[in-house]
Amino acid sequence: MSAAPLVGYSSSGSEDEAEAGARVRPGAEGRSRGQSPLPGQRLPVPDSVLHMFPSTEEGPVDDSAKHGGRVRTFPHERGNWATHVYIPYVAREEFLDLLDALLCHAQTYVPRLVRMEAFHLSLSQSVVLRHHWILPFVQALKDRVASFHRTFVGLEVTSGHAHFLDLVAEVDRVMEEFDLSTFYQDPSFHISLAWCVGDARLQMEGPCLQELQGIVDEFEDSEMLLRAYAEQIRCKSGNKFFSMPLK
Asked: Where is the region Disordered (predicted)?
């Protein structure tokens, strides 16, 4: 048995009304099979059809429980792409061993700390780009950073700080071209290792940070281990990634 196809139709003008009136006797109650509905009378739409097309006015629901409790810094809107410029850091096994030791100790102060899934050094804030701005934005970045050379970075940059400030200045110029927020004033360049929901600075400051620094200092070859070779700058916009090699 095949289902009846859905059809759309409309009627307008006196000619259609006259034809409909000729098919239905004035004052007749009900309709026999095969007759058309009365003018202006609409057939009910089945519930199964009504629920096939949800309202487009309702935006997507951002469930923070799916992201470990994290909340977006700006609401999701169709056509808006969250964008971030950074230097990626590929962690070696020895680095992850050190991170496990640090995290295990830090969790005695803040149990809800969670290890980062990926590591990077930020060169911009997270900003919003319209889709048609992405390629011009990336091209502007490439033009700005084309003259920069590779360098080494650690957990917190203690040397070469001026070099990174120059790099951020070029990224900021691109942000200004697109009327976007520039990077922080007097930034501290670093690679984030862990995160948690809520403000845990009071628990982390003082003895905790001192003890964590002691673990780093005593870790074998930590000075060389915590160096990273920055070969490229990346721009992530939504689910798109763009790489800009450094000389």
From this structure: 1-67
